[in-house]
Amino acid sequence: MLNEKGQPFHGFMDYSEIFKKFSMNNIDKPRLINNPWFMVDQIKAITDLMTGLYRYAGEFVEPLITATNYFAQVEQSRMISPEQEPIQGYDVASPELCMAYAKLLEFNMEIFSRFQHGTLEALGEMGKKEWEKFFKAMENTLVFKEEDNLENFFSRCFESINDVVNTLPQAIQEIEPEYGFHFERGINPLAAETERFFLYQVMPTKTDVKVDEGAKPLIILPPYVLGSNILSFLPGEDRSYTHCFANQGIPTYIRIMKDIETTPAFQVMTMEEDLMDTRIFCEKIMEKHGKKVTINGYCQGGYNAVCNILSGELDHVVDALITCVSPMDGTRSRGLGSFLEGLPSRFNDLRYGTKTLANGNKVADGNLMGWVYKLKSIEQEAPLVSFFRDMALVAGAKKKGGPIGKTALALNYWLKNERTDIPLAITEMSFAAYNIPVKEDGTLPVTLHGKSLNFKTIKEKGIPWLLCYGESDDLVEKETALAPLDYVDTIEVTEFPKGHVAIATSWSHPDSACPLHGKFGKGNYRGPVKFQMDLNSSLDVQAASLKNSKTKEGKKKK
Question: Domains in the chain and their CATH numbers?
């Protein structure tokens, strides 16, 4: 190393000169150690960091406290009323109870171990990345390079923390007017209503598109857990699953559940009532458009749709089926299914997630159900991991020189706000699907009106079924979604890249690599909108053929 005169340094004095110059006051560019504002920024950054970690930890721990309270209430009830037990084959005073608690402790320790592993791994990755930048900044500072010195390094760190704690939450909240349906605006008219549901017609967002009233109509059943707004992700950005249908002129309807907090009829709804309300809606839609309805279920809504069709109650109004990322046999799930299987049987009980409302009705706690999904993927969902992930999100946007992308903001808004309680009967249906496998003959673990349901009935009815799944879906894995193929060989399958909500977010854009209204991929797959359009075209051809044959017969008679 040379000094400023181009001479080699000799001994301690030369290095002391470096540190002396480093600590000298530079009016144009004050150094960190004598810049009073640095201390203020440092204190603010530490405060922001603690606030952020407390917030992220709170969002994770709050459902834990709720779950603990439910657990205590149920166990206390079991202890006070032992005559209502035995449950799972033994009473509360038996040695098996001690074994169950021991297994529960082991189950919790395994989750905690994964929690630690994920957190430490995230810390290691972040530390490695930032330490490299720190030492580079230190080196640049010592040799008076200005492009990335310590001052810039710490300023970036402080700014990144501030962005995650203050800027990101505000940006997420500001995306709300662009996200979801916003039925209160009156753009999508109310078409029908029952005690439990609204039926809205979704209108095109394209001004040059008009609804073809004579086309084959479609009703969408959204998931209970994920909410309906994920299917109207960002309509203004052409990222909306529902509007993909409407923008092709298809008469598109969506069933929306009423507010469970203020609707007692929905709180105590049975699967049969869910079915009959869907039947009422389909009858009204068919009456208006003159053609049978395609029923389209997304995620949990797809399982509902299949059960409804298998019941036979929709035979006169429904003649086609589309399911997207729907769990058809939850016991095949490597994630949630394996998670529930690892839980001791005594505690694999819906009562541990049941909330009692002010009017005494019991419902499944939606926030707690969302938390269960986090637990199954605890390595990626631990608070510190989520904090670092959001830091990377903000840093990535800044590196590109623009604001945080609307897609990321809308996803975060959905994750933070779209949780609602669920009727117990619907939760029991999902619970059965994830704990009891489909029988070898295709019989499902649920019934409707006391009748068994079998996948093979779909083929017997001759109903075309398009089954869509996500290649990298870690919520409803491929094996879980494709279970019906073991019993029905007439199902058309469409594989989409990415995960559980990509069909509604990434691929709903008309210019995406997997457009819903076209064909794509090596398998020349049909998207769900294309499937519906082809069904309508086929009906039109049949109608035209029938009309021509009648015309010819009329001429012959003359």
Answer: 180-340+436-542 (3.40.50.1820)
Identity of residue 240: S
**Contact (Cβ atoms closer than 8 angstroms) between residue 221 and residue 271:** no
Share of the chain above pLDDT 70, in %: 85
DSSP string, 279-344: HHHHHHHHHHHSSPEEEEEETHHHHHHHHHHHTTTTTTTEEEEEEES--S-GGG-TTHHHHHHHS-
Q: What are phi and psi of 310, to 5 degrees?
A: -65, -25
Predicted confidence (pLDDT) at residue 213 exceeds the cutoff of 60: yes
Start-end of H helices in 436-522: 456-461, 478-481
Distance of CA 310 to the CA centre of its chain: 27
Residue 121: its H or E element: helix 95-142
- 24, 80, 274, 278, 307 from 450: Cα distances, Å: 86, 34, 15, 18, 13
Compare 335 and 217 and report the one with higher pLDDT: 217
Pairing relationship of beta strands 362-364 and 422-423 according to DSSP bridges:
antiparallel
Q: Does the pLDDT of residue 541 top 80, yes or no? A: no
* 263, β-bridge pairs: none
Tokens coding 288: 């208006």
Do residues 234 and 407 make contact, with C-beta atoms less than 8 angstroms apart? yes
- CB-based contact 289:213 (threshold 8 Å): yes
Q: For residue 318, how many other CB atoms are within 10 A of its CB?
A: 23
Assign 310 a pLDDT band (cuts: 50, 70, 90): very high
Burial category of 92 from C-beta neighbours within 10 Å (exposed 0-12, middle 13-18, buried 19 and up): middle
Predicted confidence (pLDDT) per residue in 413-464, tens digit: 998 888 889 999 999 998 899 889 999 999 999 999 999 999 999 999 999 9
Q: In terms of pLDDT, which residue wins out, 311 or 105?
A: 311
Residue whose entry in the numeric block shows the structure tokens 């019991």: 362
CA distance 191 to 196: 14
Edge-to-edge strand list for the sheet holding 318-324: 190-193, 197-202, 252-257, 218-221, 293-298, 318-324, 465-470, 492-496
Size (the chain), residues: 558
pLDDT digits (tens, 9 = 90+) for 236-261: 999 999 999 999 999 999 999 999 99
Q: From residue 113, give the alpha-carbon distance in Å to each of 48, 110, 334, 337, 485.
A: 28, 5, 19, 20, 37
The dihedral sign for the CA sequence 374, 376, 377, 382: positive
pLDDT of residue 84: 53
